[in-house]
Each structure stands twice: as structure tokens, then as C-alpha cells.
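Bug: C-alpha cell stream looks shifted between consecutive jobs. Job 1:
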Amino acid sequence: MSNADPVEIEKFSQVAHKWWDPLSEFKPLHEINPLRLNYINRHASLAGKSVLDVGCGGGILSESMAALNANVTGIDLSDKALQVAKLHLLESGRQVTYRKIAVEDMAAECPDTFDIVTCMEMLEHVPDPDSVIASCAKLVKPGGWVFFSTLNRNPKSYLLAILGAEYVLNMLPRGTHDYAKFLKPSELAQSCRNANLTVSDLSGMSYNPFSKIYSLGTDTSVNYLIACRRD
């Protein structure tokens, strides 16, 4: 628990019961999930692979990867989120293993285990993102894939991701993000290299407020994804 912010865990625990409501505070996660899923599957081909979803929350991404025949384990530190994730399996019929464990402890317990490790929308919520990145690198097999997504740190991302999304459009609850914890792509790429991960791709995720549609492209100024392979 040393690399976890209790305030952040409690923040998401309080609304965990809404995780699978596509019209709730988690609506953006539901809307971007197909993009995240396709991005991962395009690079790493999920079918038949062992996958670890770090910071799985209520299991939106975990379940969608399991639906593509991946053998998925999801880990998180929120009891309430994990309870919601486990309950939803009864409705969906998917097969996912959920555990309450820190990624650092998981890395010590079973290094070199997974074909794919995903860590989406989590790095901007932890005190030490480098520790998470290093642990993800330890957990994946040599030659395996690691995927991260997070928020860029610049005036545009502050304007859109915090002022716009949280205060103007009310897409997210106020206080969801802390701008100081946002990571520039160059910073995340360097942290990945420090963890012996080779960056294979960097893609941006953009939101059109008029069409209300998310899309992947080259604009990494706000949200972005990074695909890496372990050396």
C-alpha cells in the first residue's frame, strides 16, 4: 500500500456502485473502452494470451479483454470496486480473476508471468508512477507487451481535462484529476526505457465535444496511449 493514495482509493470507492452504469461518472470510461481494447488487440492480439490489468477498477477493460478470449487477471486496491467487478461477472458470464494486491507486491510474487500487462488511467492517481511502471515491466514476460494510458501535462490538457471535463461539461466529478500528476509523453517514455521497455507506439485519444465521439490519432496533447515491449 506504500504507493497508493488513500484519498484516491476512497474517491473511486465512493462511486464504485456506478461503475457499470454507462450514464454515470464512468461514462467516459465506457466510451473510450472500445478504443483502448482495439489498440491493445491490434498490437498484441489478445486471444489466448495471459493478461494482467493493473488498476482494473470495476472491470470494464478486464471483461472486454476476456471477451476476446484472453486469460485475464485484474488487480486493484479498492475493495468496493473489486466487489462490483466480481458481481458483474455473474451478469456477463465472463471469466476474470480479481485480486486485491498492489502491483509492486504482484511483481515480487510472480515476475515474468504475463504476455500482456495493461495499466490504463492509473498513473495519474498514484504517488510514484515510476514504481508502477517498473513493476509492470517485471510482471510481463520477455518480449511481452505493456500498455499505459494517461494524461499529458500542458495548458491544453488543464483546460480540457480539468476545467472542461470537470467544471464545464461535467463529464467527470470535480477533483477527479490532479494536474500536477499528469505525465508528459516524453516523461512516460523515459520511465519506460528506464524499466527496460522499448516504446513501440504512441497514440493520442481525442474527444470532439460537438459529436461527443472519441477517436485515436496523432494528437497526444491531452489523453494518450503508449505501447511497449519488454527487452
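Job 2, same session, no restart:
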Amino acid sequence: MQINLITGISGSGKSVALRAFEDAGYDCVDNLPVALLESLINTLALEKSEKVAVAIDARRGKSLAELPQILENLRLHHEVRIIFLNADSNTLIQRFSETRRRHPLSTRDEQSQSVTLTEAIETERSLLEPLRSQAHSIDTSNIPAHTLRSWIQDLLMGQALGLAVIFESFGFKRGLPSDADLVFDVRCLPNPHYDKLLRPLTGNDLPVQEFLRNIPEVIGMEQDIIGFIDKWLPHYIADGRSYLTVAIGCTGGQHRSVYLVNQISQYFIGHQALNDLQINFLIRHRELDSIPATTT
């Protein structure tokens, strides 16, 4: 059975992610007590269920300490994947303010006294850190709900086993992705933004691609990033990683970083030796993916 554990910081989009799994045909359970996880999986196994998504968060309190061992037990007979949703504190505070909901840990200290929202968020981060360190982390700070659903769908389309390498473009003006393992800064490269004809376009558009591919510095940067990843990727695989996020950033996340993510990801997707290792490559453009879809 394929077991997907969805966890993370309150307000980061766990409900959105769980609905994406439900839409994909998974059996879904929200806010499950930790002690019931193994019983649930055993029951679903008897019912011949093949894929399940379970949301567990910090409301489970001290019982979260038992979860890593339970997951190890489940891995003996099942495929287990952990998805950790995160966001920066300012974004979380804004979301709670907009929805006017209370944080689930806001009155759950040992003396049952109220704590501030910031204190509740930090307590939650501490409780969930053991899970975050072994999970596929998604930073939802700068993305809307429809983008998170799309990213979850992309993840579900990937291979079930092996390492997932995510190439993500972003704009530094909106902050670093907190889920990035490797970050490459390409702001030193010539910027198509200063060409009035190229400014409204993106790195997905042919005129921008032609502009950038004819610049020696861009070619050099592309080759250097490919060389670095090519050299060290086997070491990440040997380390037992399940996910590796390579973030490439320019100023606005529209031209240079998008172009380089596309170029570099296509190199690795076509790398036959890596394909034999069952590596799943995913592409994300944080700033472009955040633009709401329009209908005509």
C-alpha cells in the first residue's frame, strides 16, 4: 500500500493538500490520532486499499514522538511518503488574521493558558521538526491554493520509488523558498527585463530563450550548475534522500531563473544513466505558477 502522511504547520494548506489526494482517488483521513494509524492501515489493507492519505498535525501533542517509530514499522510492508507543508511566520499570521480562526495550540500549553499566535506557531514547529527533517517539504508562503493543488498533482504523477528532484525557479524579491536544499543565484546574468519587448514575456517564451541562449555568461552558468548537480547527485542518492529541491533564483522569478530551470531540468530528464536509477524530476516555477489561471 502507498501511504502518504500529510503534516505541517497549521495554516500552511494541509486541507488543500488532502483534498488534492481525495480528488486523485486516495482514501483520506484527517486529524487521525497517532495511536490509530497502524490500526487504520491494517484495516485498509484487509479491504485491499492501495493508496491512502492521512493528515496528522501538532494537535496530537506528545503522541507525535511515537510517530517516527510507527512509520518505520509501516515501511516494513508498505511504501511511506511524508509531505510537510510549511510557510513563514508572517504569512501564517496573516492567514489566521484573514480567516479569524484560532491556532489549534493557542490554548494548549501545560497550564492551559492562552499563548500568542507567534508562540503557538513556534511551539508547533518544534513539535513537528522530527517529521520535517525526513519529509518532502513544500513552502506555501508565496503560492495560492490552486498552485499547491497543482504541485501535489505533479507529485502524484511521479514515480512511486526513488529520489524526487525538484527544479524550482523563484524571485528573490519574494524571498527564498524554505524547502530549497540547493540555491543558485543567477541575478548576475543580463536581465531581459530591461528590454521593453521582452519584459512582459517569461523564460517559457521563445524570444526570451533566444536572448538568453546567445549570452556566454548564461551558457557558462547553465553548464556550471549542471556540472555541480551531476557531480554531487550520486552522493545525495547514497545519503538515502527521498527528495532534493534545487532552487534557481533571479530578481523577479520571471525570465532568467525560469529559462535555466527549463534548460537544466531537460538535461537531467534526458540523462539515461539517471533514468535507470528511477529518479523522478519535477519542474516548478514559483512566481509563474502563482499567477491565477484566466479563462477566455
